[in-house]
Amino acid sequence: MLKHSLWVAGLWITIVLLNPASAAATDCEALRQKVQQERSLIKKQQLLEDAVRACPNHAQLHYDKAYAQERLRRYDEALTYYLKATELDAGFAKAYFGLADIFVVLGNLEPAIWAYQSGLSLEPDNQRAVTSLDLAQIKYRSETGERITSDEFVRVMQESRAQSTTEGAMDGPIVRMQILFETSSAGLTPSAVDQLETAGTALAHPSLADQRFEIAGHTDSTGTPELNLSLSRSRAEQVKQHLIERYEISQERLTVVYYGDTRPAVPNDSSQSRAINRRVEFRKIK
């Protein structure tokens, strides 16, 4: 509270002024309460849009806006608002967890791991975040070429998060693996055979025995789009055939899709990034 005295018409008049920040905070809380009472997600979105505009420094409102965007599967917008919430309040653990979840949805595992770790440094007993961090680390190790165990593969495939999100999203049960093929061919290298032992053993696990999986082939941007599309198909088919013959996985459980270089996991701007993009993805579809 601020007091300010003015000399007006021969009299001292004392004006009591509310602290501007406190007044704004009170108004913003009132706006948030109004938003919370709205049941319609569409109407809530508009109220949140107005509230965030009126209270640009209110971290909780930015979090609420991000969560609403996430529910509508507007992941890029959700990412922006979660990030803003963490900038406004560096101690906002839930905002870091929300940020991490969106990074996972978008397939950006390295920043997801950072965000989970940031949130857990503030709220170390959050078991959902502990589990999510562990799964993100497994996926990241796999996509960067490190061999994971069949038990870790099974853990990822037993995730309960929704499988259907945006095109190319990977927040559901999906494992990206760097499978090394012979140059410009679908021939499996000895390293690829070793890598596929993890997948084959996992898919034969009793907990996954009645599940169907999509095998997706991807390439980097080297070569023509037509060649890459054909190569990604041949490689995905080769992986499927290997799993059928070596591990006796029923062919009815495996579906092949192929994308060539059209869905890079990371930009094709370095040899390491191109290696990540030359990948096979296993996605649980049932």
Give a verbal description of the structure.
- The protein is α+β, with helices and mostly antiparallel strands and 286 residues long.
- The longest helix is centred in the C-terminal third of the chain and has 23 residues.
- It is elongated.
- The chain has a four-stranded mixed β-sheet. Strands 1-2 form a two-stranded antiparallel ribbon.
- It contains eleven helices and six strands.
- Helix 2 runs antiparallel to helix 3, helix 3 runs antiparallel to helix 4 and helix 9 packs across helix 10.
- The N terminus is likely disordered.
- It folds into two domains: 85 residues, Tetratricopeptide repeat domain (Serine Threonine Protein Phosphatase 5, Tetratricopeptide repeat), CATH 1.25.40.10; 141 residues, 2-Layer Sandwich (60s Ribosomal Protein L30, Chain: A).
Number of helices: 11
How many domains comprise the coordinates?
A: 2
The overall pLDDT, averaged over residues, is 86
Q: In CATH, what is the class of the largest domain?
A: Alpha Beta
Give the C-alpha Rg.
Answer: 25 Å
